[in-house]
Amino acid sequence: MLLAVIAFAISLALGTPAPAPNALTAPTSHLPATQPGSGPNEGVFLVTTADDGSRATYFIAGNARHSILAADMQLELQLNPLWPVHTVSPDDALAVAEGAPVGSARQGLVGGTAAEPEPATEARPPKPVAEAPAPEPVAEAPAPDASPTAASATNDVADEAPAPTQSTYVLRPGDNLTRVAAHHGTTVAAILAANGLLNANRIYVGQTLVMPGETASPEVVETPAAPAAVAADDEQPVADAPDGPAAATYTVKRGDTAFLIARHFGVTQSELLAANGIANANRVYVGQVLAIPAS
What we know:
The protein is an alpha+beta fold. The protein is 26% helix and 13% strand.
């Protein structure tokens, strides 16, 4: 009996203890690092209304707003309940340049399309609108006619509508068909049909797309022939000319946004964009010279 007890004790001493249960992995934060003192909203969640009417959520870090899903914001607040949450207007959100999104959140929810915009602090190439080939209908205008029958000759030219023309466009980072169609004055469906595409999301950077042409407007043909030669020497399309005379110019600096520049000169962001032929408030870059409309 004593030997049995000793043998049992030895077996217990030589036995391998059961492994300890795996410790649960603590969740970690995915928020970008903040820079205290870089802005009044640094380290704050901003909740505003997106362009489509839904709710857009941002986290301010490094003096930039980073788009974040509402569910991810709730997880971050569980990790650190001290993060402030402020509800602001879209204009207040636009006062901060947009940075990279957090997780699977989308960019461009406020003040632009859902495509990936470039921040205003990065140097950008010349405006893409300058690269788009534009038909020059005034070049087809007849020679000046000082006779009393000039009006009837103009009407004859207006009746001869030019055939639709086509051009091409090479996709670049940040493009989507909605933006490209709006820029070229056409529709997404027309671009898909012209290129034999079925899905507007199956496009890629470097792809060359055929832009469906449009018949030149007859109102342009009625322009007097004398200034037509001047228009032919102008490098900018007629559609890009500002609506009114500019009172001054301003060169974009690092950290500027269209909203801050407009507020500084006492004009609205829409007036500033219209005066410079810009469709997207995020398409400004360091070194760009902007015309400031008279306030």
